[in-house]
Amino acid sequence: MGTSEPAEIVEIVQNPVIAPKRQHRNVETKRKLVEATLVPGASVARVARTNGVNTNQLFTWRRLYLAGRLGEAQESTKLLPVTLQPATSASSWGAPGTIHIKLAGAQIRIEGSADVGLLRTVLKLLRA
To answer: Whole-prediction pTM value?
Structure first.
C-alpha cells in the first residue's frame, strides 16, 4: 500500500450566480406600471416581464392602486356643493295617523300627536 491517499476533487466556480439586488421603485413608477395594466387589452404578465417586475408584485401594486392606497392620486377628489334646507314640521306632511289599540279589558284610541311618556305609562298600567 502506498502512503499517498486519493486527493479530494474540489470544483472551482469562476462565475458564481449572484441573486440580483432588490430593486426599489418609487411610487410614481409603480403607478405608471399599474396604469399600463389597466389599458384595455393589456396583459399584466407582459407589462411585468417587459419592466423586470415580478407579476405577483405588480398584481399587489394594482390591488393597492384600485383601493386608492398607492401614493397620491393624480386627480383630486371633487366635492359637490351642498345646501341645507330647514327641517319641515310634521304638520306639513299631512294629517297625523290614528292608533287604535284593543286589549281584553280596554280600548285606546290616539289621534294626532301624543306624549310618548304618557302613552308608555298608560300601556304599563293596562298590562298590570
So the answer is: 0.43
